[in-house]
Design brief:
heterodimer; A: 319 residues; Translation Initiation Factor IF3; 2 domains; 34% helix; B: 272 residues; four-stranded antiparallel sheet; 6 helices
Chain lengths: 319, 272
Amino acid sequence: MPLFGRKSDEERHQEAAQDRQRGAAQRDQLLSQEALAAGGLPLQATRRLQDLAAHPGIFTSDLSVDEFLLVKQAGFEPVTQVMGSSIYHVGFQTRGWSGWSGYGTQELQVVTRAMNHARELALGRLQQEATLAGADAVVGVRMTRGQYEWSTDLIEFQAIGTAVRQHGRPKDGSPVLTNLSGQDFWKLVNAGYAPRGIVAASSVFYVVANWQTQGGGNWYGWGNQEMQNFTAGMYQARAGAMDRVHRQAAASGAGGIVGVVIDRAAREVEVGMGNDVTRRDMIITFHVIGTAVTGRPNVIPRPQAVVSLDKSKEPKNEL
Amino acid sequence: MSYDPTSLEGVPTHGRERIQRTRSAESRGFFTSDLSVNEFLLVKQAGFDPLGLVVGTSIYHIGYQQSNWSQNQEMDVLTQAMYHARELAMTRMEEEADQLGADGVVGVRLEVGRYEWGANLAEFLAIGTAVKHREGELHRAPNGRPFTSDLSGQDFWTLLSAGYRPVGMVMGNCVYHVAHQGLRGWFKQIGQNQEMPNFTQALYDARELAMERMQAEGEQAGAEGIVGVQLHERSHGWGSHVIEFFAVGTAIVPVRPDHEIQQPAMVVTLND
């Protein structure tokens, strides 16, 4: 038993070993953060995937059993689950407007850019992971947008999917991403099409309330009427996002976009105008994601009508 | 916790009586299950009979771990607690299945619940339907335990028809403390659009660790692969900076060399 406050040699050795370990972990964290700052992958992920490429062991995938079998049927083998993520700080965009004139509907470019850049980083990392794993494609990519309690200025974009390799095909180019499920992927490949990559964009618009929309119609009677500038704002946000997606698809040489998922939201903001008068403006967000495809269609067989014993898909675990 | 097929450790009197009753009802061909009608028929078609609902549970006191305010780090004490509690629940469920003479458990659900009366307590629950092969083919996991799988009855049927079988559920977890950012950091980024490499690294590493551990478990089970992986994120009341990442999936092995499935035909379902 050592005296109070004094440590035995063994304890000192242990502590030194722990310190070294902690030091190594912190060094790894710093190196990871540097790699991330350059748009790359953290060490842990790079090591896992390089290991996997060097000594192929078991595959992992978030494909369901049906998807797994259909992807195999389409001529692909699952390699590993891959992901990409980016936590992004959105710059504050000031709107201290209290007057009416001169300000109409306009895009909140800082916020739009933040979302598009964060998504691009997450998808970029997903693709890098798939490249390290030696994959030809990533199927079933799910994008999620998240916010954490600890900061509302931060957004997270996360992409998860299963990297797959095609049987007997030499590697060419970087892996192709698609947000299509295993089932949709099989149908598409069978019909003679090939995915060219994920296309996605967000657009955020600020709509200033005008005499018509302000105050919810209190001054101008109770009649039914369309809120024209809010409608117009939604249209503009949609156009903003779809334009970007069109450009991305055109750049990849695709003939069209399928599997499109649209998510939109409208949020009210109260703006003080002095003298205790407020008006209610609107922030409209529009997200779109899909898969650009190209190809020449085969003959699509006429579907049969059946009664299925399948159940509708629902999450099984709740933790 | 070591596996003992005859163990009733942790099972209260009522539970033992239930197992007794289920076992004697089995001889009359009576069973309980949480399978839907479709699942029931498909499990039967695959050559299995449902025996009874099996449950494993563990109410676990999760210890305390001091985190360094400004440091990204894994909370290994919490990681171990969360893993061990789930393992206890799973093992108990497997032992119950064994006592019913089952080959495996399908449709396993793993749940974590918290109660108002215990701040650091969490209940871990594993529940599923024990099944037995009619022809008595051995379908157990390599370690001698009944196989477990969170696949639905439909998926179970499809997997077996394609020449694979489940060996067991595999899981990995990681409880991670995400560093707080100092005031200086906040001032620097006011009005800036920029990625936060420290936060990205923290969550990335935590997910990566959970997935890697699950993969190692799959390798240990001698599996060919893992399907149906789900990744869950939850902050089990530890405050917002401490998050658990939990990956779970079903490890599968081939039972014959060819896995060709019939060329599927296109259909329109008349279900809804």
